[in-house]
Amino acid sequence: MESGTIVMMVIMLGILWGGFTVLLVHSLRVERRRKESAGSNVAPAVPGGSSGHDAGGTDV
Amino acid sequence: MRVNESFTSRYGLLVAALGMAVGTGNIWRFPRIVAQNGGGAFLIPWLIFLFLWAIPLLMVETAMGRHTRFGTVGAFGKLIGKRFTWMGCFVGWCTMAITFYYSVVTGWCIKYLWAALGGKLLGVDGSAYWESFQATTWEPIFFHLCAMGVGGFIVYRGVVAGIERASKLLIPTLFVILVIAAARALTLPGAVDGLNYLFNPNWADLLNYRIWLEALTQSAWSTGAGWGLLLTYSVYTRSKDDIVMNSLTIGLGNNAASLLAAMAIIPTVFAVLPAMQASEVLRDSGPASTGLTFIWLPRLFEQIPYGAFFLVLFFLALVVAAFSSLIAQIELGTRIFMDAGLPRHRAVAFVASGAFLLGIPSAVNLSFFSNQDAVWGIGLMVSGFLFAVAVRRFGAARFREELIEPANNDLPIGKWFDFIIKFVIPVEFAVMLGWWLWQASTSGESWWNPFAVFTLGTCLFQWTVMLLVFWIFNDRIAARTLGEEQ
Fold this sequence. Notes:
The structure holds two protein chains of two kinds.
Chain A: H1 3-38
Chain B: H1 10-21, H2 24-36, H3 40-68, H4 72-80, H5 85-117, H6 126-135, H7 138-156, H8 159-186, H9 191-199, H10 209-223, H11 229-234, H12 244-272, H13 275-283, H14 291-301, H15 307-339, H16 344-364, H17 366-394, H18 396-404, H19 416-442, H20 456-472, H21 474-482
């Protein structure tokens, strides 16, 4: 494998896959933390209807 | 119609948005475009435009959908005034016009998955099989109907029970398939040549402006930035959900999937064919750009160990990717008609049946298909530009301060956002459009012909007709969608 290939692979995979994985894991952790801190205030999801979360409180 | 649904979690929103972004463009288009534009050198502008075009526009779409709680038509009218509703109409129409033939492509993928499952793609001439499939006429229409029917049913089920549930199944499945396919490809003897072709840059290629323009087009096409799809999904997000990090995650995840698809396909081609022939095959567009995917890959897969299994896996990935994007497109149309007062079931029925009927010409005539692909594919650049115009009109700094910063963003957003929206995106659009106009007008004598397949004339003619229609009916559409809102 040529050296240019290795350098580009590391850069591209690092930014794209590394970045994507880190952000996704972070997002899920933050979501879990917020849910835990919200405790029982969060209503369970209702398939096909309102999830219990606000959709912005609009009257659209 | 009041918005009474929302994604149940951030993960639900992210997989749905990734499903919207990751489509056939990642698996079918990206490997071919990389191969046609210098391999490794192409990756650099492609990455740059991810940050300078796609991700800022994804942030704009998220904020507009969240703030206005309207689909594309109402969002533009509510954000910058009813007299600009035509902008949202054009964005919505552009994406729906793509949906008409995207459903046909999804149908092709279903047909080939079915054929791969039955072992009918092995040991046959790929070109002859493709031509016999197209010659039947009824088959492309039937599979187009299947695609639109299943997509319509998922959207009919609603945001949580339909879109979110389907995305939670489809997207992890897609990523697992891509990882398995890439692992298989990279362990084939000779795969290293493919990796060198894909990653090793020839720096001189960066002086070729065509590579930069193809990279921008691919970024716009593949990430879904400027389509209005993320705007539509954002109507169903919670009012304080993150905007900045979610947009980054969607953009990076989309490009990561593209790179993985290329790492599955390009090394496979090089492992099976001699290097010279491999690069020719990768550049072969074929009819309606089907060459690599529908004609060559079945031939290549039959030459690798367990090729039949991996061929099924490949077309399964294509079907999954196509559906996850198709449902976002159907939802975009559905939301627009729901905003106009239709209940979901009637809006879905109207959009799905209309899209099926308007997709039939593309299903039976590949020239018409190619024409629509060119006209509305390039039209996406106009759509992206219209988003930047809307934010500029609203005030880029005000947009950032009032619509983006109040969200619970895990990453801060700075004044760079204002600069990109006000200057960088318009300059990108102007350079690209100017280049395209110059290229198109100097490439042939009939460049003005509005009824030819690939001419500048046909694009300008179709865009102008639709813009005129939306401009004439602007007030009526705004009144129907927005009512007394402003």
